[in-house]
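Progress narrative, Year 2. Work on Prefoldin subunit 3 from Kwoniella newhampshirensis advanced from sequence curation to structure prediction during this period.
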Amino acid sequence: MAMTASSSKSQTSGEMETNPRGIPRAPFVDDVEVYVGGKDAEIQSVMKKFEETTAKYRYMEISLHQRRKALLGKIPDMEQTLQVVQYLHKRRQTALGQPLDEEEEKLSDDEDDDLDDLDDDDDDDNDAGQKKREEVEGGMKTLFELNDTLYAEAEIVESGEVGLWLGANTMLMYPLQEAIELLTTKLSGAKKSHEETVEDLEWLREQITVMEVNFARVHNWDVKRRREKGLLNQPSGLLASGKKGKDDSDDERD
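Result:
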């Protein structure tokens, strides 16, 4: 997907164009001879600059791949945690006779069959409400994960608060409503960060492709120049390792 529309436009001719996260656009070499500085200019410094720029883009690409992988692991956990806290909040509101908002009503309609076996018969509303209040006051039975595929039955005493891991071996107790707001904000931020990371990866792939095309254009221009001067059998000296290149007569790049 092209990122040109979302990239930051340079305000002046001397300002480098970047994408919204500050990753610079790779310059495209339209006229090689003008770019390298003339027909007799040396190109080793130009090629070295291309290699360094490409290496920087590839380093950023690796970092963003790692970031994307971490986000893909965190987002499902955050969604599951938010779903559980919303259920606890809905359960407590129902037990206390408080009205549910639209999202909580939707959660109740979608998940009551899986998360709660309470009787919702319209003819027994009073009895069902009393039963819910008793279950909240007496705790909720659930399964506690000890290890992969290993669970133990546990009873949770509901207090209107929930503990959230904040990292660095730190857990903090939050009221249920505050926990929902915090998790919703964090989840929204993580999803936005993932979208931006994907966009940056696409942008980087474009810039790496441009640099590879630049490298090939300058290389082919140098081969053509040496052919015209009868110096084609001499090594071009373009290998990054410092080794002498072999005959470049058939080494032009597409």
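The helical segments are 32-36, 44-95, 102-115, 125-138, 176-228. Residues 117 and 132 are 10 Å apart (CA to CA).
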